[in-house]
Amino acid sequence: MFVLSKSLRRARTSASRTHIRYVGGAATLAVAATITAGAISTTEPANAERQPVATTHTAPSAETDASASTPAFPVKTAPTPKIEMAANKPVQPIVAPAPPPRPVYADNLDGWIRQSLDILKANNIPASYDGIMRNVMRESTGNPRAINLYDSNAAAGIPSKGLLQVIDPTFAAYHVEGTKFDVWDPVANIVAACNYAAHTYGSMDNVNSAY
């Protein structure tokens, strides 16, 4: 029993030493780590600049912006005008203006002269009412069927005819389009005679005798 107890004491003493050594070793490591950390922290200069801590900003979402810009009260908008489609309306045809009515001329000397003046004006042939009337009265006294059977022209077989006593070759040479090709027609006779006088004398107004 004595021997066994002594052995137990030795084992307990050995175990205690081992525990103390282990505990001591762990403490030594802890102290060494503390001292090392302290040494590292004390080696940093006192005036060292601290690095700024990065902060993260979250961008506002589209929903947040929309809710922030939307007023708290409803906004009244003007009503949209109704637009009628052109297709619903019938297309109105474009009607050209009616031409002016054609002038009506009296079937007499006054009417013949006035109609002749309109034709002469349209063809840029100079003449006047008075110039035509004066020569008509001298040549035929206003008779559209007048004919001269006694002068040199009649002797040559081409007697003077009509209001202004025009011979057939002269009428054919100075006939104006738009009038009848008939020397006995009063308007055609006046217009052809005035055209001849314009080329020969400048105007019927310059004729004061047989021409």
From TrEMBL:
Bias-annotated ranges (Polar residues): 53-70
Keywords: Membrane, Transmembrane, Transmembrane helix
Lineage top rank: taxon: Bacteria
Pfam entry (one): SLT
Domain Transglycosylase SLT: 136-208
Listed transmembrane segments: 20-40
Region (Disordered), start-end ranges: 42-77
Keyword Transmembrane: yes
Statement: the UniProt record of this protein carries the keyword S-adenosyl-L-methionine: no
Gene3D superfamilies: 1.10.530.10
InterPro entries: Lysozyme-like_dom_sf, Transglycosylase_SLT_dom_1
Name of the protein: Transglycosylase SLT domain-containing protein
Organism listed in the record: Gordonia insulae
